[in-house]
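Support request from a user on the community tier.

User writes: "When I paste my structure tokens into the form, the page sometimes reloads and wipes my input. The last time it worked, I copied everything first. Here is what I submitted, just in case something in the input itself triggers the reload:"
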């Protein structure tokens, strides 16, 4: 089985976009480096041949910054199979009142939230891998 693709939206200038990107990096670089990899959303959108080839028919997890679901839609339009789709605000309930940072930096609470989002996706990875065996 090839690596699960974990794709965040680009969400530039918004803390939710930064949370999406940082949490995906935690999954692909720290929590599940052997089972996952990430790809650049802009390349997916522009139809870069190499990236399209890596996405088509592949198992993907997306993390979006808002209900516009840019990552999910782009991956699906490219032929990727989105088995788990999340958006950062879905997990905000327990974090109301916290300051997470801005579009360019995360506070300590922001990093904790990113870690929680990364754990959600790491559980997805376990579940997906579990289903394969
Ligand atoms: S999903 Fe929302 S935050 Fe992310 S790139 Fe799209 S509009 Fe921006």
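"...and here is what came back when it finally went through:"
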């Amino acid at each position: 089985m090839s690596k699960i693709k974990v794709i965040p939206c680009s969400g530039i200038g918004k803390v939710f976009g930064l949370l999406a990107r940082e949490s995906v990096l935690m999954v692909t670089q720290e929590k599940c480096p052997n089972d996952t990899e990430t790809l650049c959303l802009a390349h997916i959108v522009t139809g870069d041949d190499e990236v399209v080839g890596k996405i088509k028919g592949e198992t993907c997890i997306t993390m979006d910054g808002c209900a516009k679901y840019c990552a999910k839609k782009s991956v699906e339009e490219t032929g990727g199979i989105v088995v788990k789709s999340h958006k950062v605000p879905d997990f905000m309930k327990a974090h109301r009142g916290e300051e997470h940072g801005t579009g360019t930096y995360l506070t300590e609470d922001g990093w904790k939230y990113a870690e929680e989002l990364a754990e959600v996706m790491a559980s997805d990875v376990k579940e997906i891998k579990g289903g394969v065996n």
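Agent notes: The reload is a front-end session timeout and is unrelated to the input. The pocket of iron/sulfur cluster is lined by residues 9-11, 14, 16-17, 64-66, 68-70 (CB under 6 Å). Strands lie at 4-8, 36-37, 59-64, 81-87. Escalated to web team.
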